[in-house]
Amino acid sequence: MKRLAVLAVYATFSVCLYAQLPVPLGSAANFGVLAGSTVTNTGATVVTGSLGVSPGSAVTGFPPGTVIGTIDAGDATAAQAQVDLTAAYNNAAGRPAGTSVAGDIGGQTLTPGVYTSSSTLGITGNLTLTGAGVYIFQIGSGLTTASGSQVILAGGATADNIFWQVGSSATLGTTSILYGNILAQASITENTGAVLHGRALARTGAVTLQGNTDSSPGGPGPQPPPTTPAPSSIILVGIGLACAALYLGRERLLRRMRRI
Fold this sequence. Notes:
By secondary structure, the chain is an alpha/beta fold. It contains three helices and 23 strands.
C-alpha cells in the first residue's frame, strides 16, 4: 500500500509538472499585427488590436484597411513589442520537444500539448483542436495553410492558447481560417480572404495582408459580455489547485511513508 501511495503521488505530480503553460507574449499581446520590416495591405482588411512595425516603419494600405486599435510605426511601443515577441518566440521554441508531426496535419484531431516538426508543416482540409489547454506547434521551417482549409476548435480549445512558432515564414491560403498566435521568425503572408482568429507576429520580415480579417484574442474593440466560466475552465482551476497542494505536501507524505 505504501508503494502504491507513493506511485500515485508521483504520477499525479508528473501530470502537473508536464502540463503546458501559455507562452507569455508581454506587450506583443496588444497587437493583432506586428512586423519587423513593413506592413502592407490591399483591400478591406480589418485588424482588431494594434498594428505595429519595428525596427522598420513603413505601413501602407490603411486605408482602405481598418485598424481597431492604434498604429505604431517605428516607435517605442512597437520596439518593446518586438523585444517581447523575441522572448515569446524563444520561449515557445525552447519548450521540450513534443509529439512529432510532419508534412500535412489536415484531417487530424489533436489535443493540448506540444507538437514538433523539424521541417515544414501544412494544413489541408480541416484540423480539429479539441480540449481546454495549451497547444504549441514548434515548426522548424515554414507553415502553409491550403486554400479553404480550416482549423476547428472544440471541447474548450481557445485561440489565445494556441501558438504557432514558425522557424521561417507563414503563408495562409485564400479563404483559409486559422486560430492562434503566429510567432514567425521571418514573414507572414495572408492571401485573399484568409481569416486569422489570433495574432500575426513577425520578428524580422513583413506582414502582407490582402482583404483579411485578423482578430486578436482580447484585443482592443468591442468585447462580449462576461459569461459564466465553462465547466472545462473550472476543472482546470481545480487541477491547478490540486497540483499546488500535491507539490507542497508530497515531501511531508514521503517522510511519513519512510517511517512506516
